[in-house]
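Customer ticket, subject: "Can you confirm the structure for Radical S-adenosyl methionine domain-containing protein?"

Message body: Hello, I'm evaluating your service for our small team and ran a test protein. I'd like someone to confirm that this is what the system normally returns, since I don't have a reference to compare against.
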Amino acid sequence: MLKTCLTAVRGPAVCVGRCFSREVSGAVSTLAGFSSPPFSTEASLYVHWPYCLKRCSYCNFNKYIPGSDKQDVMLECLQRETETSLKLSQVSRITSVFFGGGTPSLARPSTIAAVLETVARHAGLSEEAEVTLEVNPTPVGSSKLEDFLHAGVNRFSIGVQSLRDDGLKVLGRDHNSQHALQTVAEARRLCPGRVSVDVMFGRPGQSVASWELELDELLSVCDDHVSLYQLTLERGTQLFRQVQKGQLSVPSDDITAVMYESARRILQKRGYLQYEVSNFARNGAISQHNMSYWKASQYLGVGPGAHGRFVPHGEGGVCREARTQTLEPDVWVREVQQRGHGTRRRIPLTHLGLLEEVLVMGLRLVDGITHQHWQLFNPRADLHQILSSSSEVQDLQQTGLLILDDRGLRCSWQGLALLDSMLPTLLLLLEAYTQGLQEQQARGATIGDQRDGGQRVSKPG
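Agent reply: Thanks for trying us out. I re-ran your input and got the following:
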């Protein structure tokens, strides 16, 4: 169960709600007054740079090896789609920006600056807004950090993944441990307290002892934020095929569970507080951008394959939509040039779909979901009313995995690692609650029809 919980949150390609059963329906909620989230003029922005110099052996993210120089056309189209998204959402303030990929540190710093200028021109972007850039820790990536800082970036997320050169080779990374250490040191010099490091466990040939030693070494040089991810074997990747053929072996689920628990203890001992399933911070250095996902806030997605969740007020919309941009960069470019955006799919979120996202994403947080936060999205019934009478929820509470009290709903220390095993139960209870409201509403409508003699009576003009 741990493997899915520790899926990397790389931009807003977030699998929630119906991913645990069936896909969210495209129909708009029929529950009166509950078809849209609380009104907000704010949103965060995710910008996807789809290109890499090479594909890592484990990676199935939306990334491509460019056959020619794409810098100019990407600059043009990222600016245009950003402008379109801001006008469509009518947000007046962007709270954070995250440049992910792919390898966004391959983009020119002037491209990053131009996107930020577009945001500032069409919506507010304060000087304090968190602006994160994912960085591949190669000599080329490290040499451009200062230029990115001048372009407006104020936080770096560095894909170290491992400090073992043999491990990096297996993963197909194009950096070595010395490159990683040098990049982290340079980033810390430029942005002290605002550097995050990604590290991966469950790699081929890794033991609990070697993992603990490696993590301890990393923590002696890294900054105030660490993201911890378990290697996931994805179909279609080179690493998946190597393991299937018996050329490599990965630790068992029981071993990776021990690795996760030992990492949590080591990080805590070194002063890093866990605030989400995969994320740890000290000195208050939490990722403000990712918090917007976990708090089910609005976010705009720009670039090939980016995801977004926002209300399209510019089209007269009142419901939040789940939007996905066209995956393939060349096709996305043509669409943006023709119509200003490359939106491939848009699904109006039902009331149930929205609550599922609040539940699934919120429970990733150590603090969980407060009653006040839940009320923003569902003022009709609180979490106690929906969940507390369930025998399954009572069992989860008695076994010490789930906490439902006056603060709200959250996982215990042990429960956070087992979140995926609890979500199907909680989602079914949520679905039963919304179905009950719909049936209650339908019965009320039927009674109204009967009082009107079987038909609606129009009042005279």
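A couple of notes from the result: The longest strand covers residues 93-101. Residues 1-5, 7-35, 454-461 have pLDDT under 50 and may be disordered. Feel free to reply with more questions.
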